[in-house]
Design a protein that fits this description.
Shape of chain A: globular
Low-confidence stretches of chain A: 1-17, 331-335
Helix content of chain A: 25-40%
Oligomer: homodimer
Strand content of chain A: 15-25%
Structural class of chain A: alpha+beta
Mean pLDDT of chain A: 89
Number of helices of chain A: 10
Largest interface: A-B, 79 and 79 residues
Radius of gyration of chain A: 20 Å
Number of strands of chain A: 11
């Protein structure tokens, strides 16, 4: 059933031409067998992690044909993106970046998944792990008659986790950086655009960053936080519901990258609509008492106030001074 | 992409007739929102767990048509089995049962998965969690065009984790209880047998127990340990490889339940062969210095010595006083 459980990409790979123990050696070479704070990594039934205080844990699954399209993404990007989007949940709760951050990876390999693709995917996972200071400590790999799927569990810690709940009326609503680039980037990938602006947007989609350092800084002052994975207005709605407050947001204040504006215009798309409702940028949305803003601005330079929390429930968006309702509050991936 | 990440069974369920927030409420009612040692459970980006010392973490995926057959198992059994088999890895490393044990569940729902089935599966997860003193602290649910799949990440802790490595020549090799019941049970399910013996075996397959308490007791003395998920000889091979030793095992000493013997005989199957190579019973295999056996026998009553560790590498099985090679050392699930 689960074979050498903690050996990342380890089993039932006969169909893709990879032998179990051979792969364990390769995976251990790629990801390491032990690390600081990880006395036992890949190769046993469990990994062993040193810990103290409050642990943060989360799990996320992406399925080919639902959350991603292998025809548009290189295998390295698939691996990067699956890990980064999982790590983004740690950022959203303010995981401490001075303490170990670990990941477990479970891959479902379809019949058409050859060894070269597996290695490229694992390389993308490793690149993302290195870029984020994260250790891959184990995993599982199984065969599937269905589409490729990747589940990532992440583990971090914090002495003061910030949650979705905790926002208060009068708090400022701030976003950590530009929105819409990833959404425009996906459109650009689908259209096959290769110019510099399109590539910049596509990179935001293919290789999002989990804002761990920014999340850790914000966690010192934020009353509530969430990462924007599904769309600004939808994720803001989740935060409001958890905090039992409402919010007003001025879409004209939402930062949008100039390249994203340009490519969107070229494709006949509304960049503001995409910024409001697409998601996939993995910026953080933080609520702050007004006195908390100034001390953070030098530490989180992209931080931009886009609205305010209020007692009345619901999310009210404005654009050009008028109430605005996007076609969708959160993007539903349509493939 | 990941929506309300920590809300177990939360998203993209339009296709199965379950609405996101409605389901979060149901899941929170089923699994609870906080517990002792779990200040934040279902409902935020991450769950928050109190911890100290060494954490044990593991991840496991089961796919319908590869690791299980939904035609043979009730949805409750699918849920139970996925969690129990993941928890078995914590047992294998000697997780401390006095400290919190937690799980994250990620479910991929196929198009034919209706809400009633989802609730039944979740109920099986909850029953298993309660039986094992485990808290379900979060999860993710996604739609898939492929088969149902369930990934479970488990988190425990131990001051003295026992690993696969550590066995020494001269150590006794012991198993915690009977093998073969689950394998015979699967055959019985396939043949549609419903008599008492067959049901006893089928139950071993449908609802295995993770031997957490036994694993914790053994961890006080064992030099190395593994759970038997894939077959005695195959898992023993993993332990030997990690410990850089070999083993001799006398298959005549392997405990086999009388009901399993009877049903196997009736079906024309070799119960000893199944016990040696099928797996799925989730008994533990422990290596012990000879002086360590007696103190454990009252605490782990089913503990049975079946062989010995040796310096020469490889696993040598005997049966009826002669060298024995089963047709397969580890069962490869054939569906």
């Amino acid at each position: 059933l689960k074979k050498v459980t903690m050996a990342f990409f380890n089993i039932l790979l006969e169909g893709v031409g990879v032998r179990e123990f051979e792969w364990i050696q390769k995976a251990a070479a790629l990801f390491g067998r032990k690390h600081e704070g990880v006395p036992v990594g890949i190769g046993d039934d469990c990994a062993v992690l040193d810990c103290a205080g409050s642990m943060l844990v989360s799990i996320d699954t992406v399925v080919d044909g639902v959350h991603l399209d292998r025809r548009l993404l290189a295998p390295e990007d698939v691996g990067w993106r699956a890990l980064a989007t999982a790590l983004s949940d740690l950022a959203a709760n303010g995981a401490d970046v001075r303490r170990p951050i670990s990941a477990l990876i479970s891959l479902q390999c379809p019949a058409d998944f050859v060894e070269a693709e597996l290695l490229r995917l694992a390389t993308g996972v490793r690149e993302c792990a290195e870029a984020h200071g994260c250790r891959v400590v184990g995993g599982d790999t199984v065969r599937t008659p269905g589409p490729m799927a990747l589940t990532v569990a992440v583990i971090g810690s914090s002495d003061r986790p910030v949650l979705r709940r905790g926002a208060r009326p009068g708090d400022l609503l701030a976003v950590t950086g530009p929105l819409g680039s990833a959404g425009v980037g996906l459109h650009a990938l689908r259209r096959g655009l290769t110019d510099e602006h399109a590539q910049r947007c596509a990179a935001a989609y293919r290789r999002p960053a989990a804002l761990l350092a920014t999340g850790a800084v914000l966690s010192q002052r934020a009353t509530a936080m969430i990462d924007i994975s599904d769309g600004l207005l939808q994720d803001l709605g989740h935060l409001c519901a958890a905090s039992e407050v409402g919010a007003t947001v001025d879409l004209d204040r939402v930062p949008i990258d100039a390249a994203a504006r340009e490519v969107a215009a070229r494709l006949g798309l509304d960049a503001v609509e995409i910024a409001a409702s697409f998601g996939d940028d993995y910026q953080l949305l933080a609520c702050l008492h007004p006195s908390g803003l100034e001390p953070l601005q030098s530490l989180a330079p992209g931080l931009t106030v886009i609205g305010e929390m209020r007692a009345a429930p619901g999310v009210e968006a404005q654009r050009g001074g008028r109430p605005y309702e996007p076609q969708r509050r959160g993007y539903e991936h349509e493939w």
